[in-house]
Specification:
single chain; alpha/beta; Mannitol-specific EII, Chain A; 5-stranded mixed sheet; 8 strands
Amino acid sequence: MTLAHDGHYILASTHRMQTHHCFEPGSVVPDLRSTDKFDALRELIHRAPVFSRRSTPADIERSVIARERQQSTGFGHGIAVAHGRVRGLARVLIALGVSRSGISYDSPDGEPVKLLAVIASPPNLSLGYLQALSTLVRCLREPDDRAALIQGTSAEEIEARIRSAFLAEMERFEEPLRRGSAG
């Protein structure tokens, strides 16, 4: 993972270059108020500047809601990672919402969701989408890491924590690839 000239991170794949803008400023909504899953998804998509400063929030909403109606993206342990493919996007975008009260989400364990992520991906970036999804899930697997995000007091603090964890996981993922291609 390297920093590009525009301040975003570039993920170098052994097959091709993928660009991930990992939790750039405006990626976190620290105070989701909705307790219904579909309302919370809409709230996150329309309040997160990473989505709302683009001309596609309605397209993101349609795609993510349609996918969520097919099958719940609640993982359990207070985590859900909703996702959708959106024409017109040039890259994978990720937002994270924090709900202190919890969101009723049809998760396998029945627990309310406190960390709701939305990944929006161009249809042609399947590898980038899968890397973002798997990296994000690895970032959220530890209870202490989840608690630290939920207890964050500002969007900036939460963004810094999740960005750091995300980049560390990307580095761990890429290290074996670098060693394999060097040998």
